[in-house]
Amino acid sequence: MQGDSTVPSSSWKKALSKRWVFPAAYLAAAAIILTLVWVYQDASQKTLKPQGEANVSESVQSSEKPATEGKDGEAVEVTANAQSMIWPVADDVAVSIVKPYFDETNPETHQEAMVQYNDTFTPNLGIDLATADDTMFEVRAALTGKVTRVENHPLNGNVVEITSGDTKTVYQSLNEVRVKEGAEVKQGDSIATAGRSEFEKDLGNHVHFEVYEGGKLVNPVSVLPQK
Question: What is the CATH number of the domain that holds 188?
Answer without folding.
Answer: 2.70.70.10
